[in-house]
Amino acid sequence: MASQQSSSADMELGRFLRARRTQTSPDQVGLTVGAGLRRTPGLRREELATLAGISIDYYIRLERGKETRPSPSVLDALARALHLDEAEHQHMRDLGAQAARYAPELPPPSRTVPPHLKLVLETLRPSPAYVISRSMDLLAWNPGGLALYAGLADWPATQRNLGRYLFLHPTAHTLFQDDWEYLVRGCVARLRAVAGTDPDAPDLTSLVGELLLKSPDFAKLWERYEVVGRKKIQKTFHHPEVGDLTLSGQSMQLEGTPGQRLGVYTAEPGSPDHDAMLLLDMTAPQPAAHPDTTAEQRRRTQS
């Protein structure tokens, strides 16, 4: 099993380099090319090797996953040659460390959400809020956090995944028609970034395999190997129950959890968007009170 994981890690760096090379035009890096049709999309291997100051043979070994210990200086030179941004550069460093076996072992994913985080979700009402895993499984939510994604509650709890929802649920495109391009590219980029540093993780390979099979749009974006999505602070939801509402979103890593994140949406009090958010919270199915929530409410009443 260890040798299989090593092979996957070696190949992942090569996949990333190949994707970035084929999507970088000579003009972008200041190369002048002669007239005539180029058979290779983007840069040729020898062009990138020359720009980075390394031998073509060594670069080919990197791209084919046969070089397992690339030095940081070589990766930095390739990042400069490809004009990678900071996040892409860091991702390539992470892939290099993974290939060289320097990366720390990641904790196994978990679907368990600590009780105090469920209490946090309740106290955030009426703002829609939820906790997701690194592979975007919806693990916990308040009423608005689930109802905001219209139709997601119809799926079994174990199937509720925001990536699966975006690409496979029939309501998703209508709900996010204004921000569709941003959302789907950002979703795939997030999954690509996580899968790159843990390519054999069951929670990721299962989801990605399903989406590659069922969604041509996902497959096209996956092939591009983008690891940085364009983020929008505000999203407009064309919601079938409460109408249109534009909310500001925030996502943050949760301490002490295996890659879990908290997502929350807000609106300016007194605005039509806030009124729609309140309506969503009031009309959404209400969960049974969590023991911690009940205890907290009792404590407040007594004080």
Word description of this protein:
This protein has helices at residues 2-22, 45-52, 56-63, 72-81, 86-99, 115-123, 143-147, 162-168, 172-175, 180-197, 202-214, 216-224, 272-283, 291-302; strands at 129-132, 138-141, 234-239, 243-253, 261-266. It is of the alpha+beta class and 303 residues long. A five-stranded antiparallel beta sheet has the order 2-1-5-4-3. α1 (2-22) runs antiparallel to α5 (86-99). The longest helix is centred in the N-terminal third of the chain and has 21 residues, at 2-22. It is elongated. The N and C termini lie far apart (57 Å).
DSSP summary: helix tally: 14
Portion of residues in beta strands equals: 5-15%
Shape: elongated
- Helix and strand content put the structural class at alpha+beta
Strand order of the largest sheet: 2-1-5-4-3
* Biggest β-sheet strands, sense, barrel: 5 strands, antiparallel
Alpha carbon gap, first and last residue: 57 Å
State the order of secondary-structure elements, H for helix, E for strand: HHHHHHEEHHHHHHEEEHH
Mean pLDDT comes to: 85
Give the total of beta strands: 5
Stretches where pLDDT falls below 50 for ≥5 residues?
Answer: 1-6, 289-303
Q: What integer value in Å does the Rg equal?
A: 22 Å
Helix content range: 40-55%
